[in-house]
Design a protein that fits this description.
The protein is mostly helical. It contains one helix and no strands. The radius of gyration is 16 Å and the shape is rod-shaped.
């Protein structure tokens, strides 16, 4: 049971990190496109 809890926590942290990275990439792309325009 404890192992499953740790696994779920790791998965949640990994997903949050991936979303944060994607948001940063999208933000940087938007900034570059605005600069070009």
């Amino acid at each position: 049971m404890i192992v499953l809890g740790l696994g779920s926590c790791l998965i949640a942290i990994a997903t949050l990190a991936a979303v944060a990275l994607l948001e940063r990439i999208e933000a940087s792309r938007g900034a570059t496109t605005l600069r070009v325009l």
